[in-house]
Every structure is written in C-alpha cells, then in structure tokens.
Design brief:
The chain has one domain. It is built from 6 helices and 3 strands; from the N terminus they run αβαααββαα. α2 packs antiparallel against α3 and α3 packs antiparallel against α6.
Length: 160
C-alpha cells in the first residue's frame, strides 16, 4: 500500500486533555505548604478518578463512532447512488485505534481493494467518476454532539 493512501483516509478522532489536572496538583502542593496537607490527597484522588473516567469515556466514544459509521455506511451508502456497490468489507473495516495512554481514539476505515489500496476515502470524498457518499463525517458530527453532554457528566463525577 502506498504510504500516502492512508493519509487521506477519513478519520474521526476524540481525545481528552488532562493538562488541567497538573495545574490542580500544583495548587494542591501550594496549599499543602500553607498547612492544608489534605489538599494533596484530594488532588491525587481526583486525578485518579478523572483519568479512569476519561479512559472509559474515550473507549465509549470509539465504540459509539464505530457503530454510527457502520450504520450509515450500511444503510445510506451505495445502493445505486454513486456506482459504489457495498460488500460489507468497508463497513467491517471501520475500527478504533486507541492511543497508548487511552486518552484518545481515531476511527477510520481500512478496507483495501484487490490492488491492496485503501478505498474508504473514495466513497467518503468521491472521485471524478463517483459522487461522494460521506459516512465518516456525518457519523462523527452526530456522535460528537451526543458526547458533549456525556463528557460534562463525567467531569462532574470526577470532582464529586
């Protein structure tokens, strides 16, 4: 497969930034040096809880995106609209890839044709011979909107 083939694949990514937890820990250290020793313990417990909840959130986001992208691809893509004939290969190739720390996920289709070329981008973006039939972008938009409220709930649980 050509290196640049994969770079144009449609990708949906979600991540959680936990940099603010470091700031919280620094504030807790300052408070501890002023006599509030329990601040460090509270900060550490909050950080551990936030990390665990964030990883679960990312895992859930990846699963939701895979399900939504597969549903759109199977129900709305092909079937005579553009000439693309769905076989299930593209749908089945939509998978999540998690970062090593579990704080981000990228979901992309990795189906290849007989020439071993990725073809998900041709369906998503179209070609000069084929109209685009987006499935990753609409699924990413829907899942992202659904996750906004969910993340707010998780943040509240972390600080409770």
């Amino acid at each position: 497969m050509a290196e640049d083939d994969e770079s144009v694949l449609p990708v949906v990514s979600f991540s959680v930034d936990t940099n603010s937890l470091e700031q919280m820990k620094q504030v807790a250290q300052s408070m501890a040096s002023s006599g509030f020793d329990e601040a460090v313990g509270i900060a550490n417990a909050t950080e551990q809880k936030a990390q665990a909840l964030s990883k679960a959130f990312i895992k859930n986001a990846g699963a939701k995106e895979v399900n939504q992208a597969q549903a759109i691809e199977s129900q709305l893509v092909g079937h005579g609209k553009s000439g693309y004939v769905p076989t299930g290969n593209l749908q089945g190739s939509i998978k999540p890839e998690f970062s090593q720390d579990g704080m981000s996920v990228s979901i992309k289709p990795e189906a290849t044709n007989k020439a071993n070329d990725y073809y998900g981008q041709y369906v998503e973006f179209g070609t000069y011979k084929m109209a685009p039939e987006p499935y990753m972008k609409p699924s990413g938009e829907k899942v992202s909107a659904d996750l906004d409220d969910e993340f707010e709930t998780i943040v509240r649980k972390a600080v409770d």
